[in-house]
Specification:
Strand 7 and strand 8 form a beta hairpin. 29% of the residues are buried. This protein has a domain of 225 residues: Alpha-Beta Complex (Spore Coat Polysaccharide Biosynthesis Protein SpsA, Chain A). It is of the alpha/beta class. The chain is built from twelve helices and nine strands. The N and C termini lie far apart (121 Å). The strands form three sheets. A four-stranded mixed beta sheet has the order 2-1-3-5. It is globular, with a radius of gyration of 34 Å.
């Protein structure tokens, strides 16, 4: 046998040994290079500044109690209505709270554009910052120009087009309620328009609403064509004609009823499908739904005064010439009778509409004398 032996693959043994040595040598060189790189990186790490990430994991904020009880500083969220209503539907089951809570009134302004009576409202709100919150739903195309010092600055919610008498008006009101429910301090919710004014100072209105055992929703059975005549029999049996009610869209509800409104998946679809002009959904949906679900929690009256004596599809509008001493005295003092906490009283109305922009100057001039602010 010769010096060179062959393996099973017919390669000389010396060649195999040579390949092994080269492989071993290459591996050693690679390890050496890797070791030098790691050493070099360690040296650089000691001299290079460490940049801390400014991105906080979102789950840490969501798990924080503060995140749940702190009102949103920026109302321009990206939630659609389905997401918003779902988020607003969260209801704590425990009555004892693990934090201090000051109940607030949420003032919900349903407007087309500007708030021409804003200076009067600014005077009304002044000094009561811990007891109220403001939300505005206007046309998406409207760009508000409130100064940063205004209580209305940054209080516009993501809005959609809302048409009078259409389901979109109801959607806008539900949207306002849902946004306000995200602040757990909001306990009472009032729907207002840009033509509304307060008839008393803030302290009177806060005490009146906060001490009431009931919510103020106008609910009545109207047998005429503009009442029961608007009922669609296709809504039965979910909504029977004996349950059909009418009322004002300018209402006040407590937190429980606000949650009931935004979570309603029983009555809303029926009204959306079958209550169309000349069935004005904003006059029937809320009164009917709340009358069916929670009649024992309603006063069946509205806190907002309007004048229908002039006739027509809309109430009377009051301008500069209408706002006199006599007129405001009658509004603020009133000569009406209603029930408050199961007792008869003449103290029935807290707001009034409709006031045109021209009414602002006389309102500001006479408000301290007759409205108390």
């Amino acid at each position: 046998m010769g010096i060179l032996e062959h393996g099973k693959d017919n390669k000389p043994l010396s060649l195999k040994v040579l390949q092994f040595l080269l492989l071993f040598l290459g591996l050693g060189i690679a390890l050496s290079i890797l070791s030098m790189c790691m050493l070099r990186f360690a040296e650089l790490k000691n001299v290079l500044p460490v940049v801390q990430s400014r991105i906080n994991p979102c789950f840490q904020q969501q798990n924080s109690l503060e995140n749940w009880i702190r009102p949103l500083s920026n109302l321009h969220h990206s939630m659609n209505d389905a997401e918003l209503f779902w988020r607003a539907s969260f209801v704590p089951q425990m009555k004892i709270l693990p934090f201090k809570r000051t109940p607030k009134i949420a003032f919900l302004f349903l407007t087309r554009g500007s708030l021409p009576l804003a200076p009067l409202w600014e005077r009304f709100f002044k000094g009561n910052e811990e007891l109220y919150s403001i939300y505005i739903h206007n046309l998406p195309s409207y760009k508000p120009d409130f100064p940063t010092s205004s209580v209305f600055y940054g209080r516009q919610i993501p809005s959609q087009v809302a048409e009078w008498g259409d389901i979109s008006i109801t959607d806008a009101e539900r949207r306002l309620l849902a946004n306000a429910l995200l602040d757990i301090s909001n306990e009472w919710f009032i729907i207002l328009s840009e033509s509304c004014i307060p008839l008393h100072n803030f302290s009177v209105i806060y005490r009146y609403i906060s001490e009431s055992r009931y919510s103020f929703v106008s609910v009545f059975d109207d047998p005429r064509s503009v009442g029961r005549g608007r009922y669609n029999w296709k809504m039965s049996p979910v909504v029977k004609i004996t349950q059909w009610r009418k009322g004002s869209q300018w209402f006040e509800v407590n937190r429980k009823l606000a949650v009931d409104i935004v979570t309603d998946e029983v009555y809303y679809p029926k009204f959306k499908q079958f209550c169309k002009p000349s069935c004005y959904v904003d006059e029937h949906y809320f009164p009917t739904m709340l009358h069916i679900q929670s009649p024992h929690l309603l006063t069946n009256t509205s806190l907002t005064w309007v004048d229908w004596h002039r006739g027509g599809a809309h109430p009377a509008t009051f301008g500069k010439a209408d706002v006199t001493d006599k007129f405001l005295k009658q509004l603020s003092e009133g000569q009406r009778t209603c029930v408050y906490n199961n007792q008869t009283t003449s103290y029935c109305l807290l707001f009034a509409r409709k006031f045109s922009p021209s009414a602002l100057d006389p309102l500001l001039k006479l408000s301290s004398k007759y409205l108390g602010f």
